[in-house]
Structures are given as C-alpha cells and as structure tokens.
C-alpha cells in the first residue's frame, strides 16, 4: 500500500512537471493571484532553495543512497511503525524519487510554484515532489519528536 502512495506521488509529480515544461517554459509567469501566487518555469540545478548549484552527480549519488536507505528502513521496520509514520515515509520516498528522475533525465529539477508576499518576500520556487518531501519530513519529525511512530 505504501509503495502505491509513493508511485502516485511520482506520477503526479512527473505529470505536473511535464505540464510545466509544455505550458510554461519560455513564457511569462502565469499569474494566478496577483502579488501572491504564480506559475513560473524554473530549472533548478541546485538543492532546496537553489543552494549547491551545478552539483548534479553529488545530488544523484546522495539521493540514490537516501532512496535505498528508505527502502531498507521500510522493509525492516514496516510492522513496527504506525500508519502515519508509514505514510510520512512513503511521501518522502515519492518526492525524493520524483526529483531524482529529473536530475537523472535532465540534470536539473523542474520547479514551477511561486509564492510571494506582496513583493516583500518571494519564497523559492518549488514543485509537487518538494511538497511531499516537506510534508513527509514534518510528519516523520513530529512523530519521532513526540515518540508516536511505533504501533
């Protein structure tokens, strides 16, 4: 069941990125809510928030190791974890694989969600995989912090 969640996340991520490439690349940003939310095509050659630009092989190797570690952890501890922990890990895994596919195929990750606070602050552009990585990580950290991750 958890791998199905990860697969759905990967498919959703890749479909939305494909849409962004076909609908946004080379065009002006698509304004959804003025001064707050827009869709804009960005090729991210770095990590979160654009750090470590042009370190493709570092990211590929690290992500591959993380994916293998998550698979191994899931297989060894599946029945020890509660459902919320399993879902958090599945979200993290799906998001990591989604961005991994981009790095291997293109050498960069396609980002397109852009939020800004009335021209005061612009949040770094992100994608569907990033959403699941963040939400999954927050869920895992919260469960571990409050010691609620086991059955």
Structural class: alpha+beta
Oligomer: single chain
Radius of gyration: 16 Å
Q: Count the strands?
A: 4
Q: Bin the helical content.
A: 55-70%
Low-confidence residue ranges: none
Order of helices and strands: HEEHHEEH
Number of domains: 1
What is the rounded distance between the termini?
17 Å
Can you summarize the main beta sheet? 4 strands, antiparallel
* Overall geometric form: globular
Strand order of the largest sheet: 1-2-3-4
Count of helical segments? 4
β-strand percent reads: 15-25%
What do these coordinates show?
The chain has one domain (2-145). It has helices at 2-24, 56-77, 83-106, 128-145, and strands at residues 30-33, 37-44, 109-117, 121-122. The chain is α+β, with helices and mostly antiparallel strands and 151 residues long. The protein contains 4 helices and 4 strands; from the N terminus they run H-E-E-H-H-E-E-H. A hairpin with a 3-residue loop joins strand 3 (109-117) and strand 4. Helix 2 (56-77) packs antiparallel against helix 3 and helix 3 packs antiparallel against helix 4. The protein is globular and about 50 Å long.
SSE diagram, text form:
Elements: H1 2-24, E1 30-33, E2 37-44, H2 56-77, H3 83-106, E3 109-117, E4 121-122, H4 128-145
Antiparallel strand pairs: 1-2, 2-3, 3-4
